[in-house]
Amino acid sequence: MKIHNLILYISFCILTLQPKLAFVQEENAVESEDINNYRSFSIHFKKLEYASYSTIKPDFPFIIGYPSFNSNALGLDVNYSFKPKKLIHNFSINAILPSRITSDNGTGNNYLINIDKSSYNRYETRYYFLNKLWNIYNVNFFYGFSSSALYENRILHFLSDDLIRQEDINFGIGPVLSLNWRFLKLFTLNAEGHYLIFLPYTCYGRYSFDNNITETRVDNYYPVTYKSFWDISLDAKIFKTTSLSAGYRNTSQIGYGNSKNSIIINNIITSKMDRLNEIYLGININIAD
Amino acid sequence: MRNKKISILYILTFLIISGCTDFFASLDKHKDWEVNEAGNIILHTRPQDFSNSQSPDENTIFTILKNQNFYYYLIRDSLKLGYSEKVLIYLFNHDEALEAIGTNTGGYSMSERSTIYYTYLLASYVDVYNRNAYIGCHEMAHLLTHRSLGNNYTRMMNDGYAVAISGSFGRTYDEIEERVVARTINEWMQFHSNNNNILTPEQLLNEPERPDDVFCPNAGAFISYLWQNYDIENVNKLFNVSSDEIISLFPTQFGKTFDEISDDYMKYLEETYSNE
Fold first, then answer.
1. Cys staple from A267: which of A3, A168, A259, B18, with CB 3.0 to 4.6 Å?
2. Mapped to the 3 state alphabet, what secondary structure does chain A carry?
3. Which of A111, A231, A251 should one mutate to test binding to chain B, selecting the residue with the greatest count of B CBs within 10 A?
């Protein structure tokens, strides 16, 4: 997703909401600015681009490039958050539905993958909590800790009929920083950054290879990866408890799958140099207790 | 006051970490490749005047494509590998290679993506098959064996296979012919015999940290010996297993124990490479 496409998309969403917003603005003019106890439920529909790059320079710092495996997919996020006292607790389930994969040699050509028989999907559950750090004018800053359980499954069916199936489950933790800015009573701009480290002993993967000639070969691997993602969204209130949300999320995950359970590189079975660009549109329901 | 300091510290830590994915791995955005295809090889080269170093011309591209197809079929057919995937080769110009792929004297392969990254070295050398080689056979051997036989290899099998099929390791200058040629396994083993650097199969399995110029020719010589004396498909079964498993598989694959074959091999070396 190119940035100017994203800006156009968000601008379009805001413009189409304008008539509704003017009406609600008047209705909620006296609403409280800061709600202490609340529950919030949201559902986001998303479209995303997945690119898994090759490690073209295998020494630190890595350089990644082509050929890459790419996918355009659809997905769904379901989020629930509540603030009983001081902390804001957030739970979310993020799903990317199975989608087709192609390859790109760097000039846009696919020399490797049978698109119809290859697929990618991932499911992630996240829990994180936020604590208020600062409030400057109308901007609230939060910090907290994030945790994630991530499952990924990728089937690469090559043009030669070779088949590589790779699936792994990863548990990671890391810091999170967040801010929101409420303006014109109706709009809230949210930004969040999560940084997760997936360490050995909490991650496990299976890599199987089948070329229809020799017997299927299965290698276990232990992923050591680092994932960062940042998310920016704009919420627009359309009713007292309901708002629409449009946003963009950028995820990078890098690391490798060792044949032994160790953070030190031993025998790399596979590497993970993945980037995801997501745009989403959703609805939020906020209930003050 | 204390809380403020903690907050600032937290944010600073966060900002440092936040840059990390790009710090660990940056994306190479160069897409300036000329793509030429022949047989099972898709060669990516830099266009002319891409950088200060010379990019390969048409004749060189033709030679590389022809050679790499030759190696592809040689490795696949002689090792009885079921491989039919196309191989993508990215040939980086000499002045960008060190930064781009981490070396400007060679390259490496990535079997999962059927890809070789290599440096365009300008000057060719004559390989053991009497071809003017630019990339050589070594990385193609790694690629096809890793993909077909597995990634859980010992160094003895991994480098042994690549050196044995290349018939050589590194290059040397032939003063009689006045040209750069591949340095053959025979030349290396004679050299190591003279310098008491012959490694036993047990050392090949247990001492993988030995320097390349000692380890690789020795591993290549042992694998060549196994190929010549036993069924190649049985040797292939030792590729994707640990050192201990290799030793335990010898009786079933070759009808002799590891120690018996080691003794036979050391006698063969003694007869072939007597000290000069």
1. A259
2. CCHHHHHHHHHHHHHHHHHHHHHHHHHCCCCCCCCCCEEEEEEEEEEEEEEEEEEEECCCCEEEEEEEEEEEEEEEEEEEEEECCCCEEEEEEEEEEEEECEEECCCCCCCCECHHHCEEEEEEEEEEEEEEEEEECCEEEEEEEEEEEEEEEEEEEECCCCEEEEEEEEEEEEEEEEEEEEECCCEEEEEEEEEEEEEEEEEEEEEEEECCCCCCEEEEEEEEEEEEEEEEEEEEECCCCEEEEEEEEEEEEEEEEECCCCCCCCCEEEEEEEEEEEEEEEEEEEEEC
3. A111
- Contact criterion met (CB < 8 Å) for B18 and A62: no
Domain with A211 in it? 3-29+37-288
Q: Which of B41, B78, B66 has its CA nearest to residue B165? A: B78
User: Among partner residues B26, B90, B108, which is closest to A61 by beta-carbon distance?
Assistant: B26
**Domains observed in chain B:** 29-150 (3.30.2010), 152-276 (no CATH)
Task: Report how far apart, in Å, the C-alpha atoms of B198 and of each of B191, B217, B270 are.
Answer: 9, 9, 10
- The single-letter code of the amino acid at A253 is Q
pTM of the complete model: 0.86
Q: Residue A143 maps to which CATH number?
A: 2.40.128.90
Q: ipTM, 2 decimals?
A: 0.86
- Residue A286, pLDDT score: 87
Domain count, chain A: 1
Note whether B26 contacts A: Cβ–Cβ < 8 A: yes
Report B:83-112 residues touching A (Cβ under 8 A).
Answer: 83-86, 88, 90, 99-102, 108, 110, 112
Hey, are the CB atoms on B83 and A211 less than 8 Å from each other? Answer: yes
User: Do A162 and B85 lie within an 8 Å CB cutoff?
Assistant: yes
CA distance B155 to chain A (A): 11
Structure tokens at A47: 């479209």
A175 vs B contacts (CB less than 8 Å)? 10, 13-14, 17
Contact criterion met (CB below 8 Å) for A158 and A112: yes
Over the range A66-77, which residues count as b (16 or more CB within 10 Å of their CB) and which as e? bbbbbbebebeb
